[in-house]
Amino acid sequence: MLQKWLWLPPLASEHGIRVDELNLWVHLLMLVLFVGWSAYFLVVLYRFRASRNPVASYSGAKGRASNLVEGGVVVAEAVLLLGFSIPVWVERVEAFPDVREATDVRIVGEQFAWNAHYPGPDRVFGRTDPGLVDLQTNPLGLDRTDERAKDDVVLVGELVLPARTPAIVRVSSKDVIHSFALPEMRVKQDAVPGMSIPVHFVPTHTTEEMRRILGNDQFRYEIACAQLCGLGHYRMRGFLTVLAPEEFDSWMAQKQQELAAAAGEDSFWQ
Question: Do β-strands 221-225 and 237-243 pair in parallel, antiparallel, or remain unpaired?
């Protein structure tokens, strides 16, 4: 219902309903203020017209009614802040899931693509070196000679996560400020050079489940850049694929096999 009222994209995360509810209450307050101040403006135009008030008055509005209106606005905004915004902020910023029970992944923005870096089965991110960066073969400069990097998985323009499992996404940038946005997950976080900023969420619907819900076999979760970042900003997007947990495990195992095969080929030619 909220999605229809606010023209929002379909919801696919556990925390998203809280964000949508807050969005609804903010819009309702803005609607009340818009109607109220518009009516007040029309009354003032008539009540204080020049023909009736040839001399300007600088004392301002006085009386109990104006105080009550101002007090009501303050109370409404305090309720939004203390009753809705701060609890949601604390939940999203402070209450992180245990990293041992979550899918841990780095997302690195660059002009104009998103790179995903998984630590692999050892759950430790391997070393990266800017000197090793190659836009075609090694966009993150991952040092494969590092023992901890040998099982790391790097994707370009794609992110894969398991459904109904906490995900911790560490957002950063290689060049300018970008903004990592997953509309269906109600997630948005600036990607700032020199900083790694974690966000967390729990996907509730796999890509296939959402396709059935929407009746759209072509649906894909899109990763958008919500910050103007250069001439190619319009084409900076990627895609999120949400799999069932067992499918995600199979996908990761397949990636490990591909890494092992690639490492074997390299050692053969050496």
Answer: antiparallel
How big is the chain by its Cα radius of gyration, in Å? 25
Non-local CB neighbours of 180 within 8 Å, separated by 6+ positions: 107, 109, 114, 169, 171, 187, 188, 189, 190, 191, 199, 223, 225, 226
| Pair of tokens at residue 270 | 């050496």
Task: Identify the pLDDT of residue 61.
Answer: 64
Nearest one of 123, 232, 222, 128 to 172, comparing CA atoms: 128
Question: What dihedral angle (degrees, nearest 10) is formed by the CA atoms of 147, 153, 156, 159?
Answer: -140
25 contacts: CB under 8 Å, gap ≥ 6:
80, 84
Distance CA 205, CA 106 (A): 21
Distance of CA 172 to the CA centre of its chain: 13
Higher pLDDT, 121 or 80: 121
Residues 8, 21 contacting (CB under 8 angstroms): no
Tell me the CA distances in angstroms from 104 to 38, 135, 166, 192, one per residue in order. Answer: 49, 23, 9, 19
Q: Are 92 and 15 in contact (CB under 8 A)?
A: yes
d(CA 12, CA 210): 8
Closest CA to 162 of 206, 116, 115: 206
pTM: 0.81
